[in-house]
Fold this protein.
Amino acid sequence: MANLWKQQGIPHKGWTLENVYDVREDGQSEDETTYETCMMCGHEKIRYVHVVSHPDYGDELLVGCQCAEKLTDDYINPQRREKELRNKTSRRISFIKRSWKISAKGNEYLKIDNHHILISEDSKTHKFTVKIDDNWGKKHFDTPEQAKAAAFKGIEYYKNKGEW
Ligand SMILES: [Zn+2]
């Protein structure tokens, strides 16, 4: 694996942290996950991917936390963003593991933060869809866990919207 730190023509400073994401944010299992490799140092199996950009470099780079710190010369925000994502991951896991109730039609539902969440199974396709309050999600999921992970995203979205 290439180590860009040793290559010429790649700026080592002055990068901006654009985004940090979790490759397992949709609740993927270990087997379903495609981990990233740090494009800077070649470190493998990055779960929390830091996206950095530079005005003199055409492409964004996907890197790990330590390389993101060096490239942005910022030793606070890359770790802070990664920690926020880790907290979100544990919130998502406990959300999915809550004791969901079963409706008369046999669907799982949950009341949380003034929202009513329903996981509905299509009797023909056996795919799962999410309903939050009166809104049906458009996506169909193979497992109830995936549908619940999507419901968590929806609830987090409402929560953040309320904070603005
Ligand atoms: Zn790296």
Remarks:
- The longest strand covers residues 16-22.
- Residues 59 and 96 are 36 Å apart (CA to CA).
- The first helix runs from residue 65 to 72.
